[in-house]
């Protein structure tokens, strides 16, 4: 395919449906207020007609082509813009199809070079193409090298039982609070905000304040759980992780909006086993890719996720199959007791800050704040001690055949399995307090993922030996003092 081609014309139908739906909600209350029902179809015709005309101009004056050397996208109308990507630098070709796109047989193809470039210069979007054409172009761009059939195959498939882990994330309470805020905001739009308050007071006015607050919290939690389950299901339903013959990993997922993300394995520098506190208590974890350019290839946070929250045994198996060697059973080096003391102190300081603030304000203003400060102290201080001890137990580092491992965290525990040949440098930091206790933090620098993975509060001597052995030669000039310097 080397000649110029157009995007799919069915985009006009998608635009008409979307804008018609968007015009109805604001038009209905206006029409009801003015008692002019004819305003609704007029608004739909005006909004949808203007949008379809604009989309027709975009479609009519946009074209693209894929040559052996470059993928080019051109728009010629009043202004002339042209974007192109060299084919030998293309690293991602991802497909997205919302419900309307699926109904019309379309998909959006987003192609990226995998480089951290600003202003979208490393990406090119063809929106939309026929689903079959988008799949064919994705294959053409990524699968330039044909590997033996044995190299491909499925690595993981969605299990509906994983949905039970959705309410255990921090998303659930956030969604519950957002649901309450949305209800009050919507009521305020229609001038019913005061009416909603009066309705709540009528229902809860006769109950003690503590009972009313408890009931509202239960309602928020229920709403958050329902929202978290729905969000998880929509994002990860029909999830499939496959290794393709072209040397790529492909993640396909989605219930209403389907998404397909492709990652070249030569960009992969390892994986991270992520265990949020709730999921960890339930024996679950997810697997994220540590790969070059992945953060800028896609703005969605889940673009780097290879496996959603699943049983920990499944996550460990998928991680091992992705990196090519077992990651479970690797003996991690524990950190000195001094690291435990640091975590306990930081946890207690974090908990004491709001407690002392409430007590100070209570002494100046009202005894109610003193009571709240005392209750918070009874709850927060033991919780801080438990979290500090858990954070210490989570510390560890080690190495296996081709990878080094670092683990840290409590609310979000992460175990990074990082390819040793992907480490391009080490940063050793030692604060005054760490130096007094013989501790240091060793940070492996890489061009993938977050760019830095730290071994926190390790024994200074043991950590230096670990870093030197993990990537031979990288720290050799700093591991010992040269003979000439020692004689001097």
TrEMBL record:
This is Putative membrane protein. Residues 59-139, 394-467 form the YdbS-like PH domain. InterPro entries: UCP026631, YdbS-like_PH. It comes from the Bacteria. It comes from Amycolatopsis australiensis. PANTHER family: UPF0699 TRANSMEMBRANE PROTEIN YDBS, UPF0699 TRANSMEMBRANE PROTEIN YDBT. Keywords: Membrane, Transmembrane, Transmembrane helix. It holds the Pfam family bPH_2. Coiled coil: none annotated. The chain crosses the membrane at residues 12-32, 38-57, 165-187, 207-233, 346-365, 371-392.
């Amino acid at each position: 395919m080397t000649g110029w081609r157009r995007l799919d014309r069915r985009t006009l139908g998608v635009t008409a449906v979307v804008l018609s739906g968007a015009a109805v909600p604001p038009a209905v209350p206006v029409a009801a207020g003015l008692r002019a029902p004819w305003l609704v179809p007029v608004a739909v015709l005006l909004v949808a007609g203007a949008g379809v005309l604009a989309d027709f101009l975009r479609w009519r004056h946009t074209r693209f082509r894929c040559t052996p050397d470059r993928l080019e996208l051109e728009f010629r109308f009043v202004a002339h813009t042209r974007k192109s990507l060299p084919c030998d630098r293309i690293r991602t070709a991802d497909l997205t199809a919302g419900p309307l796109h699926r109904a019309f047989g379309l998909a959006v193809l987003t192609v990226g070079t995998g480089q951290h470039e600003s202003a979208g210069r490393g990406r090119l979007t063809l929106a939309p193409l026929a689903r079959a054409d988008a799949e064919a172009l994705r294959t053409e761009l990524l699968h330039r090298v044909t590997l033996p059939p044995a190299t491909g195959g499925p690595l993981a498939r969605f299990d509906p039982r994983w949905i039970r882990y959705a309410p255990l994330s921090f998303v659930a309470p956030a969604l519950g609070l957002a649901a309450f805020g949305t209800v009050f905001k919507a009521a305020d739009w229609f001038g019913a905000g005061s009416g909603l308050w009066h309705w709540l007071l009528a229902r809860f006015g006769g109950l003690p304040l503590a009972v009313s607050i408890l009931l509202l919290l239960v309602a928020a939690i229920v709403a958050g759980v329902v929202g978290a389950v729905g969000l998880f299901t929509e994002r990860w339903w029909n999830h499939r992780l496959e290794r393709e013959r072209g040397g790529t990993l492909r993640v396909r997922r989605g219930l209403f909006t389907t998404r397909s993300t492709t990652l070249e394995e030569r960009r992969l520098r390892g994986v991270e086993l992520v265990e949020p506190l709730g999921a960890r208590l339930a024996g679950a974890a997810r697997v994220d890719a540590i790969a070059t350019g992945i953060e800028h290839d896609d703005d969605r946070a889940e673009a780097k996720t290879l496996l959603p929250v699943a049983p920990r045994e499944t996550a460990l198996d998928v991680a091992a199959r992705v990196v090519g060697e077992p990651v479970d059973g690797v003996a991690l080096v524990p950190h000195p007791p001094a690291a435990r003391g640091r975590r306990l102190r930081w946890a207690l300081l974090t908990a004491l800050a709001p407690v002392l603030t409430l007590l100070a304000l209570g002494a100046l203003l009202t005894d109610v704040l003193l009571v709240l400060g005392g209750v918070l102290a009874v709850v927060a201080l033991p919780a801080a001690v438990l979290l500090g001890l858990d954070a210490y137990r989570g510390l560890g580092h080690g190495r296996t055949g081709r990878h080094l491992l670092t683990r840290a965290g409590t609310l979000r525990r992460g175990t990074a399995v990082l390819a040793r040949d992907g480490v391009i440098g080490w940063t050793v930091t030692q604060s005054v307090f760490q130096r007094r206790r013989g501790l240091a933090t060793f940070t492996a620098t890489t061009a993938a993922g977050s760019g830095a993975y730290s071994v926190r509060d390790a024994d200074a001597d043991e950590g230096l030996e670990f870093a030197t052995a993990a990537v031979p030669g990288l720290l050799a000039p700093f591991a010992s003092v040269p003979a000439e310097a020692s004689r001097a």
